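Hypothesis: this fold can be encoded by more than one sequence.
Test: take the structure tokens below, design a sequence, compare later.
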């Protein structure tokens, strides 16, 4: 297959490495608005650099992988759809519902494939948790706790473009709540704090957030996130049922220290970031996409799944601003 990769920043460069070494990729064309960066990546992995993202579509590619800046996602998805190409895109489709719905309409009108980059769906721990919940081994699920903690804030210039902590960060946890439990979120109550670095206040964002989600079967979920977890990158989910409880993301690299005399020792090498923590999952999702593009596999995460997670994030942001519970059925459904 000939694959076009648009975006050669941190995650795009990682995807370039994976695709260049994949057995089913015969040729890789990379592009970026920063032409020098695209050329550098292409030379490093033995790929071809297109002069611009638009020109990727003229190179006879069989599928497109989008890892560019968020603001460009919707337009590139639409371009791929009109070209009849299957496309993989890092989340989000767009940072708002109108942009997301417009891109999805383009894909549906064209009858093409759009797979979204919710990589946690390919993580072994989350997959095992899903099986445990679906098998009934936990009994009736009553409580879920999800958290994402970044070791350090992103660059200040990124914040106004990110969509905020709920849309940019916790949206992964919202997707996992739906995917692992098989239930839908009906109501949210969310809050946030901007007491950390001043750049969050200046961007109208928060550095720490918490949300209480109610699922359609009455299960209660807490989801928290922070940009300021100096101990390391920490992503976990705990699921408690009447018969048992389990934890995702608890291993010898989890940046948590027990204060118990007989507790486990602190992590010797805590996870430094998302690429290291989820590297196998990122590779697995691209492998799945290539199989989807060849018609060998059903789409494991289509655009409507991304829309569902975004609607929860939108409800949380509205709840934070207005300081009230918000029902998700009051958020645009498309």
């Amino acid at each position: 297959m000939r694959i076009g990769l648009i975006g050669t920043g941190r995650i795009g460069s990682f995807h370039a490495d994976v695709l260049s070494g994949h057995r089913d990729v015969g040729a890789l064309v990379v592009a970026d608005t920063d032409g020098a960066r695209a050329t550098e990546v292409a030379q490093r992995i033995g790929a071809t650099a297109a002069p611009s993202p638009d020109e990727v579509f003229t190179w006879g590619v069989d599928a497109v992988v989008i890892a560019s800046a968020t603001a460009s996602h919707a337009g590139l998805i639409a371009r791929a759809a009109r070209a009849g190409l299957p496309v993989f895109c890092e989340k989000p489709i767009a940072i708002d519902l109108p942009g997301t719905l417009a891109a999805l309409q383009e894909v549906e009108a064209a009858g093409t494939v759009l797979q979204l980059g919710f990589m946690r769906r390919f993580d072994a721990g989350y997959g095992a948790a899903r099986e445990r919940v679906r098998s009934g081994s936990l009994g009736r699920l009553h409580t879920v706790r999800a958290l994402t903690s970044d070791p350090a804030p992103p660059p200040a210039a990124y914040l106004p473009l990110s969509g905020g902590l709920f849309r940019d960060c916790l949206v992964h946890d919202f997707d996992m709540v739906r995917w692992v439990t098989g239930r839908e979120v009906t109501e949210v109550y969310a809050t946030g704090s901007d007491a950390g670095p001043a750049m969050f206040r200046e961007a109208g964002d928060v550095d720490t957030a918490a949300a209480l989600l109610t699922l359609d079967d009455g299960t209660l979920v807490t989801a928290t996130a922070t940009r300021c977890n100096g101990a390391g990158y920490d992503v976990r989910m705990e699921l408690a049922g009447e018969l048992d409880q389990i934890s995702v993301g608890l291993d010898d690299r989890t940046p948590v220290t027990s204060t118990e005399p007989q507790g486990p020792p602190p992590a010797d090498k805590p996870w430094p970031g998302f690429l290291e923590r989820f590297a196998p999952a990122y590779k697995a999702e691209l492998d799945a996409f290539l199989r989807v593009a060849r018609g060998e596999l059903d789409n494991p995460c289509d655009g409507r799944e991304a829309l569902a997670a975004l609607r929860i994030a939108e409800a949380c942001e509205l709840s934070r601003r207005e300081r009230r519970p918000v029902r998700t059925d009051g958020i645009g459904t498309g």
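The CA atoms of residues 253 and 270 lie 4 Å apart. The radius of gyration is 20 Å.
Hypothesis status: open.
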